[in-house]
Amino acid sequence: MDAAGSPAKDASRALLAGFSLEMTGKDIPGLDDAAALLPPGTRVNVTFLGNEDLEMRLAAARAVQAHGLVPVPHISARRLASHDALEEFLARLQEAGLSEHVFVVGGDPATPEGPYASSLDVIRTGILGDYGVREVNIAGYPEGHPDIPEAELWAALEHKTAALAEQGLASVIITQFAFDLDAVLAWIAQVRQRGIRSLIRVGTPGPAGIKRLLAFASRFGIGANAMIVRKYGFSLTNLMGTAGPEKFVAELGRRLATDPAAGEVALHFYTFGGLPATAEWVRSHGGEGS
Ligand SMILES: NC(=O)C1=CN([C@@H]2O[C@H](COP(=O)(O)OP(=O)(O)OC[C@H]3O[C@@H](n4cnc5c(N)ncnc54)[C@H](O)[C@@H]3O)[C@@H](O)[C@H]2O)C=CC1
Ligand SMILES: Nc1nc(=O)c2c([nH]1)NC[C@@H]1CN(c3ccc(C(=O)N[C@@H](CCC(=O)O)C(=O)O)cc3)CN21
């Protein structure tokens, strides 16, 4: 590990300022345990999984707010059964003061459950601002997506950022997690070349069991070959171990420090190993929250 005050540690520290992280609707106990470790105002995304319902999602967002943190509720376009379901969720968020920031994503179902096939469809309803939304977070894919062609992903990113700007809404890009830093940096460069200047939050797994990380990587179509994961800091022959993002974050910080064209970049932690473990990891590596 790098000594305190070393260039690597300083680069991690700079990158960790303004980090955000993610919880599932079920993870209120984990949030309660982690909250004291998180800087006030830290953004906490609340997932929109198929095995959660409206009340669970709202309860989690309220719990985030009650801890002095900022909820970023997810809205999954393909999981919305109707236009009413979208309006009901937004209205419930707004009445509880939880609607300022949202993450709008397409959703994993191969067939939409209602009228929205993509996050752009939800954005194009034009109603987000009516419910107090000020900032819309959208997804980015440094390694592509297993079911969506590359050109379609780029077109979607451009159309979404343009539509949000037209509506006077801020946009932030949160990337799918990745172990391959070169892919992440090359993708950031492409985003900027396309003239998109939004803050990019690089999706980063919190410390977690290697088996668990690999299972999630395989489920979401994320590259994890032997060379990439060795560089990241774990070995495929020791699946019982735990892997943290220390090398990934330090190296990303170092490379961004000499790359002004990358623009504004922060980190977003996927807490596969639990919210408290991620909060402790960030704290011990110098994070200051968003
Ligand atoms: N990055 C993340 O943290 C998360 C990603 N996802 C998944 O990533 C995928 C894309 O979401 P966005 O980036 O918001 O794309 P998007 O909603 O902007 O859509 C981009 C293009 O891909 C198509 N598309 C969307 N979802 C699809 C799917 N499941 N299968 C096939 N085509 C699809 C759309 O029709 C559109 O043409 C979805 O499957 C989404 O559920 C889901 C939850 C979290
Ligand atoms: N394409 C795609 N779909 C997603 O749903 C998704 C991504 N990508 N990228 C990463 C984030 C993180 N995601 C998740 C999803 C589930 C849990 C989770 O803890 N789920 C279970 C436990 C299941 C298990 O242990 O395998 C749960 O209790 O719901 C965590 C993060 C969802 N996300």
Automatic annotation (TrEMBL):
Keyword Oxidoreductase present in the record's keywords: the answer is: yes
Co-factor(s): FAD
Asked whether the UniProt record includes Oxidoreductase among its keywords, one would answer yes
- Catalytic activities: (6S)-5-methyl-5,6,7,8-tetrahydrofolate + NAD(+) = (6R)-5,10-methylene-5,6,7,8-tetrahydrofolate + NADH + H(+)
Q: Which Pfam families match?
A: MTHFR (PF02219)
**What pathway does the annotation place this protein in?**
One-carbon metabolism; tetrahydrofolate interconversion
Q: Which UniProt keywords apply?
A: FAD, Flavoprotein, Oxidoreductase
Q: Which SUPFAM superfamilies match?
A: FAD-linked oxidoreductase (SSF51730)
What family does this chain come from, according to its entry?
A: Belongs to the methylenetetrahydrofolate reductase family.
Descriptive protein name = Methylenetetrahydrofolate reductase
